[in-house]
Amino acid sequence: MSKGLTWRISLIVFFLFCSLLYLAPTLFANLPSWWGGPFLPKDKINLGLDLQGGIHLVMEVETEKAVEGQLDIIATDVEDTLNEKSLRFKKVSRLGGDRITIVLYDKGTVASVETLLKEKYPRLKLLTPFDEGGFLNLQMKMSESEIESVKDKSVQQALETIRNRIDQFGVSEPVIQREGIRNIVVQLPGVKDPKRAIELIGKTARLEFKLVDEDVNPANVTQGTLSDEDEILSEKKTDPDTGAVTEVPYVLKRKTLITGDLLTDAQVRIDSQYNQPYVAISFNSVGAKLFDQVTAANVGKRFAIVLDNNIYSAPVIRERISGGDAQISGSFTEQEASDLAIVLRAG
Known about the structure:
Structural class: alpha+beta
Order of helices and strands: HHEHEEHEEEHEEHEEEEEEHEEEH
Distance between the termini: 68 Å
Radius of gyration: 28 Å
Oligomer: single chain
Number of domains: 3
Shape: elongated
Helix content: 25-40%
């Protein structure tokens, strides 16, 4: 055998040996105890979706709801600001998907309210006030450019939220990228529990706090007979002995007073009295202030905690709650409470 051929075979054998060393952590689940050190590889090769299977999702962000949520928060802030300044008004609410309406009792307060709103919300356009049944209707409109900005930010936020959730779910080398104006593509190689992954990643997790309308009996109304300011939602209750699930309807004020965007943390806790898991939540400084103001103004009323249009609980506000801490309780398993905490914590 010639020397040239010997060298070629030797090089091929050498490279095959190095390749096997490199692939060993991927090919063999259990490596010998002496395997390691600076020269022997320890990391597996992460196989893509085409080699090891997994999940491919295309998700659409509901950008219109992001705009509505932003307007709801501004409407709540306007109401609190007018109360602080002792400026009398009849109603403040979101109108459609691009404006807020403020109904005033008399013309004498219009100039003061307009000055206040221009200073606090320079990005919103004040429309000319008009008479409405003896009251003055003043509207603030969100411009098209501002609406597009909110929508774009909502997609970016959803992208970051999905990344955070996947990081906490523990998937190696996922593909998460924006596609078009409002779609997000997610690829999760090697996921063993696709159902839970889809539920965790795709869950909307829109947390809202709304007042219960105590003046309306849910047994006597339907969605078609309700006023525009109210809505019917249900709380699911599970009997701990039989496991039977019943739905208790409530009539809620449609206006959202606080949203989950203002959360800073969510953790699973165990109730010491009933040994049931619940989710403890904390608000940021803005959310804590709103929560303090809302609870102070509505002592004795029921305050519903709503997640994705399902009521988790509707406790009575016994006293003003300062500090920015609250809890979400319900018929959770520990896994459900853990997943809910991940979703809220990650956005």
